[in-house]
Amino acid sequence: MSALVLRDLALAFRSGGGFGLALAFFLIVTVLVPFGIGPESGRLALVAPGILWMGALLSCLLSLDRLFALDREDGTLELLATAPVPLEGVAAAKALAHWLTTGLPLTLAAPALGILLNLPAAGYWPIFVSLLIGTPALSLIGTFGAALTVGLKRGGLLLSLLVLPLYIPTLIFGAEVARRGAEGLAAGAALLLLGAITAGCLALAPLAAAAALRINMR
Amino acid sequence: MSLWSFANPAKFMKVTAPLVPALSGLSLLLLVIGLVWGFFFTPDDYRQGSTVKIFYLHVPAAMMAINAWGAMLLGSLIWLIRRHHVSALVAKAAAPVGVTMTLIALLTGAIWGQPMWGTWWAWDPRLTSFLILFLFYLGYMALWTAIDDPDTAADLTSILCLVGSVFAVLSRYAVNFWNQGLHQGASLSLDKEKNVADIFFYPVLVTMAGFVLLFLALVLVRTRTEIRLRRLHALQLRERMA
């Protein structure tokens, strides 16, 4: 399994497009926001936690359709299915690799992008912690969505339609932590619930993804 | 004879053929009785006036919007466990009916909300979770149409239905956490104290029964259409082979 993670990481690094793309997209979304709502710093500070969460969520979505599609095209997925590692393990490894190449860089970049949006000083730590805990859930749910649509020729748009509603609870709790933190309120309860969603996804999403992969490879 | 014998499509077609007109007729009768009773023979609410009468459409539609998803979940589970094609088709047939019910609940709610709350839409937990339910229905139906092979489509949509159910319930309670509500609490309750007054309660019971039968009739019609479509497809294939 670690070999699989390393392979995916190496592929993401060397193919160029995959790795930095999500980060660049996140940057562009953040830059576009002041054009859309105006440059007043008070207004930007108000929406900054929510925009950062939305941007991270959409950036996560960007690379999902490639998660299994390339492996299916060249037959790697069939080999992985017959490998000694169970398909659930493969799905978990894929999700981990996806998180390491998108979720983690997004988390690290979010506070820096917070400066652009005039995020209050109290908000840096909450946005970092909430993304750190919340983005694994996004990758795991996304892995399920990617497994569901792997057999489709134009699955990209459908993938967004399927995955975005599933992201709603994570977004609610994640943005709540960031917003409360930025306003100096207690965010412990929301953070615990966010952690609960990630833990639940960690336990169940690989099972669902593997089931979907098996059906798609019949 | 067990319940599972109805999983045979031929038997299903035979049994449901007389059921469809019976259910539709009964549903029409109950809806006419309930709506006429509700619209003309109940007093206006002392605060909301006559706008309260949309209640007789709003509440049953909202109830069926949720129950249709429940029917899809049940159909998906039976398909995944016992591989009865009819049950997968029932799940497929229930989705468009459910999404229509969700839309009716949202629209009647907006029409009711405009004079009462002064707004067509508010980001209230109940309203929001219905909008989310609507999105789940759209995703489910889109996945059905996107996949060519019928068995693969049935399998994948069933898994989506299971996962979606978990997240729909999760979203329902997450939005409570997120925003305070404008919508009133549940009007109907088994607890006599909390229930709406009897004079409003009996007509709404009649329209609810009407909506349940309407849902059953529509789902049966759609399922029968799906079975016929499959048969037609099989016949066409046989023709091409010969």
Automatic annotation (TrEMBL), chain A:
Identify a single GO molecular function assigned to this protein. Answer: heme transmembrane transporter activity
Query: Is the keyword Transport in the record?
Result: yes
User: What top-level branch of life does the organism fall under?
Assistant: Bacteria
Q: Where in the cell is it found?
A: Cell inner membrane
Please give the biological process terms from Gene Ontology that the record holds: cytochrome c biosynthetic process; cytochrome complex assembly
Does the keyword field hold Endoplasmic reticulum? Answer: no
Question: Principal place where this protein is found?
Answer: membrane
Q: What does this protein do?
A: Required for the export of heme to the periplasm for the biogenesis of c-type cytochromes.
**According to its record, how does it sit in the membrane?**
Multi-pass membrane protein
Question: What NCBIfam families has UniProt attached to this entry?
Answer: ccmB
A cellular component term (GO) from this record?
plasma membrane
Transmembrane segments in this chain: where?
Answer: 12-37, 43-64, 96-117, 123-150, 157-175, 187-213
Origin species, per record, is: Profundibacterium mesophilum KAUST100406-0324
Membership in a protein family: Belongs to the CcmB/CycW/HelB family.
Keywords for this entry?
Cell inner membrane, Cell membrane, Cytochrome c-type biogenesis, Membrane, Transmembrane, Transmembrane helix, Transport
Its protein name is Heme exporter protein B
InterPro entries assigned to the protein according to its UniProt record, in alphabetical order: Cyt_c_biogenesis_CcmB (IPR003544), Cyt_c_CcmB_bac (IPR026031)
Automatic annotation (TrEMBL), chain B:
The reply to whether Transcription regulation figures as a keyword in the UniProt entry is no
Example GO biological process term? cytochrome complex assembly
- Sequence ranges assigned to domain Cytochrome c assembly protein in this UniProt record: 25-183
Domain of life of the organism encoding this protein = Bacteria
Membrane topology classification: Multi-pass membrane protein
Keyword annotations of the record = Cell inner membrane, Cell membrane, Cytochrome c-type biogenesis, Membrane, Transmembrane, Transmembrane helix, Transport
Location relative to the cell: Cell inner membrane; Membrane
For this UniProt entry, the molecular function terms from Gene Ontology, in alphabetical order, are: heme binding; heme transmembrane transporter activity
Which cellular component, as a GO term, is one annotated location?
plasma membrane
Membrane-spanning segments: 20-41, 61-81, 93-115, 127-147, 159-179, 199-221
Family in the record: Belongs to the CcmC/CycZ/HelC family.
Q: What is the protein's known function? A: Required for the export of heme to the periplasm for the biogenesis of c-type cytochromes.
Protein name (database record) = Heme exporter protein C
